[in-house]
Amino acid sequence: MTPDTVTAKSFWVWTKKAQEQNPQFNRAGDPIWPHYKHEAPARWLEDGLICDSTEVVKEGQTDLFDYIGG
To answer: Which residues fall within 8 angstroms of residue 4, CB to CB, at 6 or more apart?
Structure first.
């Protein structure tokens, strides 16, 4: 990792903001480009264009807490 990059806990995905700015290439919740998948420019995170995949719940997606009544 260099000073200008951030490392994901799992991997980076595009945010809704990224999709709105560049809908032809970026879809919210999809992994970012393979060569940046785990280590990406810090600016993208600061600008809200990417987030860690663990922070995304896609619409209609069920998780464990739906079943255990958490």
So the answer is: 41, 42, 43
Nearest to 8 by CA among 54, 58, 56: 54
Checking phi first, is residue 60 left (phi over 0); if not, alpha (psi -120 to 50) or beta?
A: left
Instruction: Enter the tokens of residue 33.
Output: 């480009």
pTM over 0.85: no
Residue 63 CA to residue 5 CA, distance in Å, equals: 30
- The pLDDT tens digits for 7-24 are 999 999 999 999 999 999
**Tens-place pLDDT, residues 32-61:** 999 999 999 999 999 999 999 999 866 665
Contact (CB, 8 A) for 6 and 38 = no
